[in-house]
Amino acid sequence: MSRIAGLLSTLLFTLILAGCNTLTVDIIVPDSITQHEPFSYEAEADPDAVGQIAYEWFLDGAIISSLPIDNALIATAGEHTLSVKITDEEGETGEAEVRLDILPAEILNADFAVNVELLDMEEAPLENVTVTIDGVTVESDAQGIAAFTGLTQTPVLTVSANKEGYIPQSYRFDLASAQESADIQLTLMERANPVSFNNDTEVTVENSDLNTSVTLPAGAFVDANGDPVTGEITATITPVDTREMGASYLGGGVALTEESEVVQLLSLGMIDFEFTQNGEAVQLAAEASARIEMDLVTETGPDGRIYAIGEEIEMWWFDEATGLWVEEGAGEIVASATSPTGMRLIATVEHFTTWNWDYYKAEDRASITLNCLVNGSQIGPQDNCNVSLSADGIYRTTSIGREGVTIVNLAPGIELTASARVRAINGDLYTGQTSFTTVPGNISVNVNLGYTGEGAAFISCTVTDGSVVRPVECFGSTVRDDGGHSTLLESNSSNSPVRVPLVEGEPVNLLLSLQGNIVTDTINVADAPSVIIKEYEVETAVGQLSCYATLDGGQGEYYPCTALVTSDSGINTVVRAGDYSGTPLTAPISYSNSANSLDIAVASAFNDGELYNDLYSEPEYFYFSPFRGQHFTLPTSEPVTLEITDSIESRNLYSYTCRLDGEVISVEICNVTYHDFETEERWRTTPHAPSWMKGKMHLPISNINPAFFDGNIENDSPVYGYYAVENVELNTSNRTIVLDMIFNVPQ
Fold this sequence. Notes:
The protein is mainly β. The chain has seven domains: 2-102, Immunoglobulin-like; 109-187, Immunoglobulins (Immunoglobulin-like, Sandwich); 195-359, Chondroitinase Ac, Chain A, domain 3; 366-452, Immunoglobulin-like; 459-539; 541-648, Immunoglobulin-like; 650-744. It has no helices and 64 strands. Strands 16, 17, 18, 20, 21, 22, 23, 24, 26, 27, 28, 29 and 30 form a 13-stranded mixed sheet that branches. Strands 31, 32, 33, 34, 35, 36, 37 and 38 form an eight-stranded mixed sheet that branches. Strands 57, 58, 61, 63 and 64 form a five-stranded mixed sheet that branches. Strand 28 (324-335) and strand 29 (343-349) form a beta hairpin.
């Protein structure tokens, strides 16, 4: 061990003491620390400190502990900063900081590929999730896939996923040997609705779900600089029912104990906390603590343990950087008149994150060695077997290569089910499942996989008023019963059926929106599937919409626009670009038969409206951003026929060119927006426009400000960052715009 004294400076560690601190503190860490391997750290406080000392530990600026001695694990090699602040009972403080040079772990494969599938609790794909592996960041696409290539594989793979409004998820995967690739699935849980409270007085903030609460002292919070904050604080408190969390269990319940062991936890209850002021995170002050509480929902654990009032339960907080739960302190089971079990969980915490009441088996540990076999034989050297382990209160996934994997420190007496699937190099699918019970010591579990037939369903959608039938775009998603495969459905044309892959023995649950009319169905595939034709139809009132534009008074052209249709009863339907067909190009407008009037807002290349929708809300939710399209109120005594006509002048059209790294790229993959932050007017390029609009942008405004342009590049390749506009060359005389795009990689 190396002791880092207050005035000592070495090549490996640098100590910084704040000038206004009156106490000294030394940090003790190992001489050598390796990536993914646990290590201990300790603060040796000034002997002149008075009374009880409060500790605040930070790793790279994020709080990690409030104990004088603790353990940590760092998932990325290179330089990191560990710091501590101590405060005694008289308010005197001391600070110290060390820089750690983390040695890289063993390299198994220098060209490693990982596909991460992101799902919500309904097993629907999540788009725009920020996924990070070893410092490389990728955004998930519309199918919920984040694809990584060119990674360095080490014996441990840590994957983190973040999306606004969801609890951050991270997972640690142990990889026993070199693999060419890995397929991973992460499930994110949505956070609860935020509430506000005043930080200037003592307060109890509650969430009625599971009778969850947190009690805070007056002035409990400080900002990122440690300065006190006053006034309103926004709190998001999300209790987690351990009976329902399934695959969303953060990190699969894998934990780092105070003895630096990696173990499997069994959870009694969990609460996620997020506190902000004006959008910036705030944290408990060093001298403050909070009492957290929730109902205990079960009387027994997955291993048969019977819970009792008065029992002490270890507390754990989730470390997003490592995908591990970290042990810190203990909570208690107390009597409760509101809980269905008559028991309640309480604890006192000194910092906020996701907290968990859990336990693990300190003795009689169980471990399993998992292997995937295809028709009784070892899988190929290039095969990747994705396995999920599940039981009541436990859900954990892992990626297995040819050598298998050993999972240690499980509780004995748990009935687990292992479900596995392998996609062979030739594209064939193999699946299998087995169940077993853990016992003290190690057991070997082989999951034997067999060939699984695949086929396809072709889905088409129509709306009808009982006499006229019109095709519309099939928009929706599929979710398999095994929970492993969610697919977004979106046909580009009302005349093009959607293809849905089918797997033998795996029913497919459909969620479809036919212009906002929701249809659900299940395709049961008992035997080896072939081709299935599925047609879905909704009977409703049906009108007709067309969009038409002329240029400088010349010959006009029909083109697809989008529209939001709202009846006087508040029911929404929608016209999508894929709904158009025929000559001239028209789309059906579906609306309720009982409607007395309609409002129809249209978005096109010639106004500043843009249609968004959320398929997974109940009912499906649509909105315009901003809500300033063209509005019409129409009687519904006869079918609505609506033609939107725009007379466009060429003086309002600007030709645009996009360059990336100095090279001109196709306008078909370059999307440009103009947002005037003063008037809130927005204009954008879109492929849903007349043919003479290709490479042009409609800007019917004066005093165009180059700073208001933004852009993005559509690219099917993995993107470790995002595109942005670096420079705009605007020529109002020639009506040309040249945008220089750059590729930003988040630090």
